[in-house]
Structure formats: C-alpha cells, structure tokens
Protein: DUF3168 domain-containing protein
Amino acid sequence: MAERQDFINAIMLRVEALAVFDEPANGGVHLGVAPDPDDEHEFPYLVVVLQPSLGEDYRTGGPTTLGIWPVLFNVYALTAAAAAGALEDIEADFEGTLLAPATGTCLASFVGSSIVDVDPDKAADGEEVWHATVLIEFQMQRTLT
Structure:
C-alpha cells in the first residue's frame, strides 16, 4: 500500500508544480473531490481522480509485479481555451517524463484522448464552467514484500 501512496504523492507534486496551477490566484489541485460549486473559488483548478485498475497486477515471476494504474485528470476553467491549455500542459508533462515515486518504478505512461466541454454546473456567480478531462495510464513495477 505504500507504493500507492507514493504514487499519489508523485502525481500531486508533478501537477502542483505546473505553472497553470502553481499561481496563488488559481484554484489549485484537489485529490478526488472538487471544491463545493456553491462556494466562491478561483479557476482554473484540477481534480485528480485515481481510477480502479482494469486487472490484477501481473506477476513477473520473481519479487516484482507490473500493473497499469489509471488516473483521471479533470480541469475546470471559465473558458474552453483555459481548460484545454491546462490539459495540454498536463499531457505534455506526463508524456515526456516518467514519474519518480519514492517506492515502485514507473516504466511508461500512456496519455489517452482528451475532451473539453461545457460543464452542467455553473460557477457561483453564474458564469459558464468548462470541463476538460484526460485519462493517463501509468505502467508501474513494484516489489512484493
């Protein structure tokens, strides 16, 4: 279970360091749950949602296993351009550089297709909110203990 927590920490550190979410005027990065839509908060913001793996980790014969750990990245912004731009930053960051968690090894990352659309919820002041999302799968190797 320590590998999963280290994986989450590595993901959060990477996205929090992106310029689009690093500025104090922006809404920041949230794990699992978005801010309350009725509260006033800044845009853009990101919600990182861990997805269930599609299968069991594959036992490689020896002390390690391989698995695909999918993560859904949801960007909320006040314009389609801002949502798409933030999502492009995330995709570019994970496409070129592997994660470096404290335990386990990231062997590859696979960036899926993305979509940008108007969110059915509005901002607290009634403005339209745009939602951009992408699923990125990480191939992780971990040691069995």
